[in-house]
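User: tokens in, sequence out, please.
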């Protein structure tokens, strides 16, 4: 049986016209019943913004230093998530939640 998507995982996804790593931020308890998932872009372009959360790229399966860009939120079909890369730890996820709140002005 295939394992589903879990919050805090990094996947390669089709976002717009580009394949890129993304972080799943949708609550885990709804992922089994929704075909859509909200993701944050993972990028190597670091600008030092409060909406960026640093990653230890080696520990999450990425080749290059990267950040989670919480200004770059997208809702995509779960079927657009093509391959699992890795997952972030709870401390990093708390930072992501804080940065999303800041990005949305909450």
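Assistant: Sequence out:
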């Amino acid at each position: 049986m295939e394992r589903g998507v879990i919050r805090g995982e990094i996947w390669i996804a089709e976002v717009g016209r580009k394949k890129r790593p993304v972080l799943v931020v949708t609550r885990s308890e709804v992922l089994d019943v929704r075909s859509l998932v909200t993701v944050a872009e993972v990028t190597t372009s670091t600008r030092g913004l409060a909406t960026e959360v640093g990653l230890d790229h080696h520990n999450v399966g990425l080749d290059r230093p990267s950040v989670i860009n919480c200004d770059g939120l997208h809702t995509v079909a779960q079927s657009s998530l093509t391959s699992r890369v890795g997952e972030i730890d709870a401390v990093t996820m708390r930072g992501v939640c804080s940065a999303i709140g800041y990005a949305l002005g909450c």
